[in-house]
Specification:
- With about 375 residues, the chain is mainly beta.
- A hairpin with a 2-residue loop joins strand 9 and strand 10.
- The protein has 3 domains: about 140 residues, Jelly Rolls (Sandwich); about 90 residues, Sandwich (Immunoglobulin-like), CATH 2.60.40; about 110 residues, Jelly Rolls (Sandwich), CATH 2.60.120.
- It has no helices and 29 strands.
- The protein is elongated, with a radius of gyration of 31 Å.
- Strands 2, 4, 5, 7, 9, 10, 11 and 12 form an 8-stranded antiparallel β-sheet that branches. A 4-stranded antiparallel β-sheet has the order 14-15-19-18, with no helix packed on it.
Amino acid sequence: MCPCSLYQDTVTPGLPEFNDGVPLTLGVRFASDSPGQVTGIRFYKAAGNTGAHTGALFTADGQQLAAVTFTDESSSGWQTASFSQPVDIAADTEYVAAYRSPNGVYSAVPGGFGSGITSGPLRTAFDSGAYTYNGDFPSSSSTASYLVDVDFVATVPPLTVTAQMPAADSVGFPLTSDPSVTLSAPIKAGFTFDLSADGAAVAGTSALSADAKTITFSPAQPLPAATVLSASVGNVVSARGATLAPLTWQFTTANPGGPGQSLFGPLLPAVPAAGDSSSVELGTAFSVSAAGHATGVRFYKGAGNTGTHVGSLWTAAGERLAQVTFTDETATGWQTALFAEPVALEPGQSYVVSYLAPNGATPTRRRSSRNRGSTAS
């Protein structure tokens, strides 16, 4: 993606040689979408633009950050001079690159910025031409481009995993759910996402989300029950060129016939849908008589209980232990959402399980947690 400049070497000026007859400094105001380093200054030279040329980089308010003298110039065309040390610049911050013409001859493109130009991470506004007849900092603005440029190297942020579902070594993953990995930045095509059980590949397809940050693996059929699965993600490269080390982890799928328990089982509510239309958080206080794990949240959904539902598990003191958003809900009936990782429950401790009904219309006396390997009381 970089090194980058605003202009390619093939760009030539509309006015190759303009003569003001007095020394002046010409420049360009620019910014970058990403942090990085400016390594030098470039400008387009007309044959009559003679004399010793100096280049400089400034902050938007005129503080000089670096300066350089051009040497070994050609008679005309693009000239480049590198700073003795690269200059760090911040993202989305305006700077000014400039050079001084000692005899007042320069090249220009009238209206050359249009509505603003973009080249890789670099960008300008419509009036990013800069000039001055007094001193070194070109504080006056113009819509003309004087073909002043920078050599820029973007700093590529590292690519990291911000979420993965299910978590490594978790248990109780639903047989019809899709594993996924979310990254810190958009990525390119070409990644791989493989799933295997006992060394045999699980058939399915992988896809990238609209924001290019989440890879999801969709199995061709329900996953095998009570099975340790291995997931691996590879060839992941961000849009800016950062790579992710190969990622592998294991998890265990749910056992529908296992010892998982809930407070209300298949019971139905006496009032399937109340008339309250206000957003409300509803829950049940409970404890367990044996150690185990809460694997998720259940609630009974009545007609009109629409919107995005979010389940939570809390300590009795109000500390949230886990949270999950319900997906793939049915129109009515019992809904279940599993935590990314089961939460250990201790005998003798009190807990609260709840869910948010953003539009009200809730049933009465039918809310529950799912608890693996222990009995709720």
